Fold these 4 entries.
Entry 1:
Amino acid sequence: MSLLAPTDSSWAREYRGRFVVFEGPDGSGKSTQLRRFAALLKDQGVALCEVREPGGTPVGERIRKHIVLARAEEGLEMSVRCEMLLYMASRSELVEKTIFPALKRGEMVLADRYVASTLAYQGAAGALAMADISAVARIATRNLMPDLYVIFDIDEQAAAKRLSPLLDRMEAKGAAFHRQVRQGYLDQAKQDPGRYCVIDASQSEEQVWVSVQRTLAERAKTLLPLRARG
């Protein structure tokens, strides 16, 4: 028997003032689910700030469009360390100009990617030391951690079938790379189950959406008290 979504969506109000990040490999469907969750939050009257990474600011959007996510055929090559630092530069600007101000206003911040992506892509798959990434992240984000990471888990073969044939730099890195990315996310979730939850993203969009609602409704019961930010 398939599971049903909660009939009462008032649990979403518990996410007021929270910082929640949707994460997962390319092709996991996380952005689609993020849009659906954002609509539910707005229906429940939750003041919301939506952001994406890289991007979200004039500086971040230039880094996104012209460098880190340029189309694969453009031949823009760089070291993994340089790549990591560019993502962190975009993230630093986003935290400073958008995320912290929104949290201070009492809004919920819903992000499409954050530090967990760098740990998975440039760390687990790119072989950069996790300690180095975490050290840079503490500086770039002023040590701002999300209340919750929602990981959309899918294997690399299934994810590849969902991607556009016009792959960007990260999408075009191959099956072995994306297998390591997936494992990187799962390892993070295993190490910090209080901050991470994992959704089976191999299901249909509707089934995944039911899982998202059930999981986040359950997690709403265990959120820690809000603390001052900044």
Entry 2:
Amino acid sequence: MPNWKELLSLDEGGMLQALRQFPEQVERALGLACRVPNGVQGFKNVVVLGMGGSAIAGDLLASFSTLPVVTVRDYELPPWLSGDTFLIAISYSGETEETLVAFREGLRRTRRALALTTGGALAALCEEEEIPWIPVPPGLQPRAALAFLLFPLLGCFSRFGYVRGNPSSVVTILRRLRDACFPDENENVAQSVAKILCGKVPVIYGARTTAPVAYRWKTQINENAKQPAYWMELPELCHNEIVGYELAGKVFPQGIVVFLRTSFDHPRVAKRVEILKEVLSSRGLKFLEVWGEGEDALSQALWLLYFGDWVSFYLALLNGVDPTPVRPIQELKRMLKEP
């Protein structure tokens, strides 16, 4: 068994502390929902602008909003964006190039707008345009700031009556999960899953409410554990990716499928998962299932998301790396600034 106490010394960037604080961050972030003015109500659709760890908040909001929500990871906006659109810009640093360009253009089409950021150019733009913005605590990795980027939106959408589920009820289950995953003298379930994924290439499968969670697992494994990972959505993958199983054992021997499950999965999706498990097994391909916990679909999806963060943290330690640094991203940003 790995010496987890010894491996924790690799966490020089303090990712464990960020993970530990997540439930309290969620509770605090829900309180920030009051900063969203009631005057923005009356919108018919939502566009969330963001990149990387900021954009996932838009994907998760879309899963539980009763109104259409589109996440834009680009410089350009949908042509249908209008005065009936609630435009939300999310940039932890406030300097995200794509988000700033799109937000400036969007403000020419709608004044129902909001930003979430620590400051920077995005905050300055909001002050100039008299657009409300929610200040996010600085000093975190953007991927570790999800509570402050997502839960103010879930809170205000709940207040407006636009959310399926109760965001406030999530805090209790997240605290229980933290207690179960925090390192002690016994190996916990997140560490056990990390051991299964170590040396493998995870392919994460989610459906509807868990599809953005599957994407979050993929990106957290990329950024924290510094290893390849992929994701796909059910039932779409049954119409294409499943055919790739034919040669997977030969060309992708280290692949392992992770099914993210909830008790609210569509019955036909649940049946497809059972069939996929048989198809994988008959070809000697590996898989595991992770089931969410909680009273509603929102709680179970966010349980799975937080559990995935823990798994990626422990996977980083097994890989012998500090979870916090993201050197290739910094290199790319530096090169983009060069003439």
Entry 3:
Amino acid sequence: MDKIIGMGNALVDVLATLTDDALLQEMELPKGSMQLIDESKLKTINEHFSKMHTYLATGGSAGNTILGLACMGASTGFIGKTGTDSYGKFYRDNLEKHKIEDKTQIDPQLPSGVASTFISPDGERTFGTYLGAAATLKAEDLSPDLFEGYTYLYIEGYLVQDHDMILRTIELAKEAGLQVCLDLASYNIVEGDLDFFKLLIDKYVDILFANEEEAKAFTGKEGEEALDILAQMCSIAIIKAGSKGSYIRRETEEIKVDAIPVNKVVDTTGAGDYFAAGFLYGLAGGYSLEKCAKTGAILAGNVIQCIGANIPEEKWEEIRLNISEMLSE
């Protein structure tokens, strides 16, 4: 099976379940969005969290995808940056535990990145993200050897704040013969840097993941029209449509795959990331687009029944068995 390396903000998620959305308004965090916050806002959030039950998990969009792939048994690696603090150690220990090749770097000055994650009663999640050390990965930190032996590079759109670094990463990956996969990350990120995203996708990206809001922010269109535009710019375009499933286009081939039915949505954190993990697992194994999307649907359907983007270990055996049966059909 082909090897996949991810690159993204190395974040630790601190998750709290809300009884209502009043705290989001107080914190000026639009429901369903990812907002970057400064240290003072992080301090205020932590004061609220200190009075609530919180849960710790490794996070970051690309990190979640790579973790999902590793739990499926794929060969993976991760490039990111953490601090020297306990959150950084927690993050790196998790890479080691899941046999993910650790290509992270350490910033001795800044604290590790933290995503304060608010889970609304309907399962929608809102992030107040303090990037810290995660945002200090620079173009000059990268070298060709990071990409040796890999077939796919998976990048999260949240890295878009550093154009030079993303371009350098893609340049090195392309020189090493890798296919580039990009997830658009969040509708407000896309709106804020539309021209650069257009350049990336048109010129470099082979496989593109977007949810409906991100696809609309990028194309100005919805549904089929959005998929048409995206598919003309890259080899494979995927629109993740939540409970409606997913839509995939590769040249003239178009498929729709339903989401798996679930009893209760607990937390949608990581749903898109795990869909991408399943899709790439299928792709790396040489399966059809339909089987790739079905694998993605199984992983996404399982992660939304857990708090945070970490599926409990006892669930993985059953998941791997279900996917193996579906792939062998």
Entry 4:
Amino acid sequence: MEQKHKIAVLDGYTLNPGDMSWDALAALGELTVYDYTPTELLESRAAGADIILVNKALLYRELMDRLPDLKCVVVTATGYNNVDAAAARERGIAVCNAVGYSTEAVVQHVFALLLELTNAVGAHDESVRRGDWAAQQHFSYTLKPIVELAGKTLGIYGFGNIGRRVGEVAQAFGMQVIATHKHPERDARPGVRFVSLEGLFEQSDVVTLHAPLGPANTGIVNAALLQRMKSGALLINTGRGGLVNEPDLRLALEEGRLAGAALDVLSVEPPPAAHPLIGAPNCIVTPHLAWATLEARRRLMDICVSNVAAFLSGRPQNVVNLPTPQ
């Protein structure tokens, strides 16, 4: 009888907090699912598994040395900076990720954040609940000026799949779209004008961040760039928290140089209670949920199951660490 493959999910809660089934994955091997695994338990929980699924759990070189049975790591996300992919390649361990599952979900959240900044739906609802409308002489009132998106300029930093889709939706609102991009001629889109990074921040009424994070752009949205933004401009970040110098952004908000900011990602997650952007004026922070619609998580689950099945069939897919040439 053929021995079952051992599959361990080390931090499965964010993918499946209980509203989906693990059955498709369980059909591929002997499955153990942990909602969350602290660092000190990574080795014991991964021991003996030839396939592990991780989201944010750290798989470092020394840990891999102590997991001789490990053959494949499936990351339940697009980013895989929590896995030492080079060390995995040296040990013949395939690292597979998931791409494209969350585009529509993230785009939807971008505009949920933007519309909250412009229309303050939540604040007006709270006002009505406090009795402010009942106490009014007038049939209508606003807590602050409401801003139309039509005619405004949206600047996109990071013009990949999500950035391009954000641009399409922005055009449906009647916005002008500008973007930064390494390959403007190759990836030209109707109605999208490519500009420099400085020009993006100078010309935009709204800047939205969608670039991957790397050493070259960590903290790139700093005081110098923020000072280039128009008075009354808005900043949205659903990309990576590390793109923003967070103390610089708080100062810009405190000084009123920006009308508002909305972020779904922070440089440290979960953040410390004293994080500079939590409680900052005119700043909305949501807990890294833009990707997490039920539909997106179902797509992600399907991709991860497919990645495991492909590896077991000897035809691994979505491999991000190509094998070292022999």
